[in-house]
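tl;dr need the bound structure. longer version: we got a ligand (CU-O-CU linkage) that a collaborator sent over and nobodys looked at where it sits. i said id run it. heres the input, straight from their email, havent touched it
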Amino acid sequence: MISRRRFIQTGLVLAALPKQMVWASAKVFRNTFRVPKLELGKRVGKDVYFDLSIQSGKSAILPNKITPTLGINQDFLGVTLFANQGDKVHISVKNTIDQTTTLHWHGMKLPAKADGGPHQPIAPNQTWQTKFDIIQSAATLWYHSHQLHKTAKQVYHGLAGLFIIGDDESKKLNLPSEYGVDDLPVIIQDRDFKRNGSFAYLGSMMDSMRGMKGNTVLVNGVVNPVLKAKKSLLRLRLLNGSNARTYHLSFNDNRMFAIIGSDGGLLEHSIKANTLRLAPAERVEILMDVSDGGHPMLQHTAVQESSMGGMGMMNGMMGGEQDMDIFQIDASSALKSTSNLPKTLVKHNNPQQSLVSKQRRLVLQMQMGPRMMFGGNAFSINGKTMDINRIDEVVKAGSTEIWHLENTSMMAHPLHIHNVQFKVIARKGGVKGHELGFKDVVLVHPRERVSVIMKFPEFRDATTPYMYHCHILEHEDRGMMGQFVVI
Ligand code: C2O
Ligand code: CU
Ligand code: CU
């Protein structure tokens, strides 16, 4: 909660004090790292049955305060779902809250009717039954509310969780894979609070314009937790579950780690890095060696994602960026791991340029003026704001396409496409890091054009659309979303 900048200032003051006092002030987080419960469902052969309940709850997030929250099978956020490639999942979602909502399986290749987007609303007291086959490789996916114009608020209050997919190929790699022990979910979300402990949402015009950013970072629903590492090699499944903030992550001791996975699953080769950019909805899996027994802190370094650089107050308002500490690892009692940090991971079945049958352009725009200032649909794609009764694009099942994402606005937008995992083939400065892997969301900077290639799965439905949209959830809710059908 204390920003690093503030901490450094405090540090300077403390430098003049006797040594013991300085030691006493050395930053150590105290909240216990929470691992969301793992839900394996009821298994009958390859059929797996999940019973989910969308519920409201009360959570102790701040000291001596109670925060009203939303969750799935728990008070705040969702349980972690797990299934294997080749399974058929049957999911029953009961809505026990007093507002209509949905659950969307983000990153999943599946029939449009099972997608859980705005076309599958669940009214209060209703239950939605859905089923689909897991046809894709091991990956860290997630699920969240996708209620039209209400997604941002519902996710902010807690309607989001992880959906992990396993497969045989990844099992052979001997990666750390004991959930909660050396295979750890890390859902990063920023929030603001009111004095009474409840979440503060959209306090200002800027919050709804740049997307809601909070001053407090939570990891799996806990403020600045410390993880007691049990093993010397850890696999972190990082999810940026924030509404709007893009994180620039590194450890405070600048240690190296290996990036092994992106949105769509494992990379072909692990990549050594000491920093990492994580836009809203992106996932990255990293392996880190903590055999030194240290206390590394994961931190976010402020970088402006708008093109308002140097424009003083406007820049500050648009960016709303500050350095933040996220969570700490205490590796003092970690035991030696027997898992691997492999160089070579899995083989990708890449979409082929020679098979591209169509190219499309999506132009991401913001309309400045009264609409922007006073709410309403001020964000658009190709000049159109979201209309649930309009199909924007028609795609052939099984075809390979290139989409060019062009940002003409002054803010960066993380563009997400349902039902596919794409490869980024061109962007300013080249494609690197986790963006070399399969992705379902990609950050497009102001005045940038990012090109992605993808092969659409063989699900046909001429009437039920999938979505593509900015994953700054306030932008999605305010119009930056379009619909496509696959036929
Ligand atoms: Cu993460 Cu359309 O969603
Ligand atoms: Cu999605
Ligand atoms: Cu956006």
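gonna send this back to them w/ a short note. Residues 4-14 form the longest helix (11 residues).
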